[in-house]
Design brief:
By secondary structure, the chain is α+β, with helices and mostly antiparallel strands. It is built from 4 helices and 7 strands, in the order E-H-H-E-E-E-H-E-H-E-E.
């Protein structure tokens, strides 16, 4: 059974366990060193003060997570958020991404967020496919915006409308 719930700081080690291989073994994350548990928990705490941070549990363990975060600094951006999702590769293809993003989109809309943005390092067909399947549309590509493992990397940006663009 799949359970989506709000993350807690005590989940930090399990969440970092999912994230770390994306740092060390891939270009999906642009980080080059795995954060410490303390540093990671501090990040989580900062995000959770203003945005939803969700985990998915299956088989009595955390197998994925997703969260919203500030899109940009200027005041007029306050109705937009960036979104991030990571799923344990052993659990890909089980609907976890869709379930996490469905809950996250609803929670962000309730907070008054109208637009969600996702930056996806390229190539990453699985992530692009997930985002398209749940309603994200491509906005554009930042070419050669990151450098990791001896190569320049592009990031595709995608967007999704979370609620009607009325007067906030």
């Amino acid at each position: 059974m799949m359970i989506i719930r709000n993350a807690t700081l005590s989940d930090a080690p399990d969440i970092l366990g999912i994230y770390a291989p994306f740092v060390t073994d891939s270009c999906i994350s642009f980080e080059t060193e795995v954060p410490s548990i303390k540093g990671f928990a501090t990040r989580m705490e900062k995000i959770m003060k203003s945005y939803p941070y969700l985990v998915c549990e299956m088989d009595d363990k955390i197998v994925g997570y997703a969260y919203g975060s500030k899109h940009r600094e200027r005041a007029a951006y306050k109705y937009s958020a960036d979104v991030t999702i990571y799923i344990d590769p052993d659990y890909h293809g089980r609907g976890i991404g869709r379930a996490l993003y469905t809950e996250l989109a609803g929670a962000l809309a309730e907070l008054g967020i109208y637009s969600a943005f996702a930056g996806i390092a390229q190539p990453n067909e699985k992530s692009v496919g997930l985002h398209k399947a749940i309603g994200f549309k491509e906005v554009g590509v930042y070419h050669n915006v990151g450098y990791k493992f001896g190569k320049w990397l592009d990031v595709m940006w995608m967007e999704m409308q979370l609620k009607a663009y009325d007067i906030p």
